Task: inverse folding
């Protein structure tokens, strides 16, 4: 099984399954402070957001969205309001790959960044909070 370090050497676009494996490894690498609270969040990789999501988000292009948190964020959860669906983080493969090609950023780092950002929405964190969490994990730029 490849380690997260060896996965950083992608020179071609990974498949949906490969990107999901990268995301799972990246999830295991996020700061424990965040990880311990999201054990039940499902990570799902799709090529693009579906048409309903595009409409909801007001996207001009399906390439405009790298990831999306779907669920009830912790600040808004209630024991009196049961949820039918699990919390999910969607990562959109083609927009992520497009961004990767445009920027030359390390693909594993990029996936980890999107994942932390979307999981941060689960907690209601600000972008500054999420940037601080990334730096805790050694992702300073």
Result:
């Amino acid at each position: 099984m490849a380690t997260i370090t060896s996965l950083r050497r992608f020179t071609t676009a990974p498949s949906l399954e490969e990107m999901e494996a990268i995301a799972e490894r990246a999830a295991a690498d996020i700061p424990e402070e965040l990880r311990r609270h999201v054990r039940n969040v499902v990570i799902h990789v799709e090529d693009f957001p579906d048409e309903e999501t595009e409409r909801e988000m007001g996207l001009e292009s399906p390439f405009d969205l790298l990831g999306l948190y779907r669920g009830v964020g912790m600040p808004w959860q209630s024991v009196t309001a049961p949820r039918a669906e699990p919390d999910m983080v969607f990562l959109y493969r083609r927009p992520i790959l497009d961004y990767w090609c445009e920027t030359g950023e390390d693909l594993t780092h990029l996936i980890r960044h999107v994942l932390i950002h979307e999981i941060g929405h689960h907690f209601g964190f600000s972008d500054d909070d999420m940037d601080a969490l990334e730096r805790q994990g050694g992702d300073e730029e």
Residues 4 and 59 are 32 Å apart (CA to CA). The beta strands are 42-46, 67-70, 88-92.
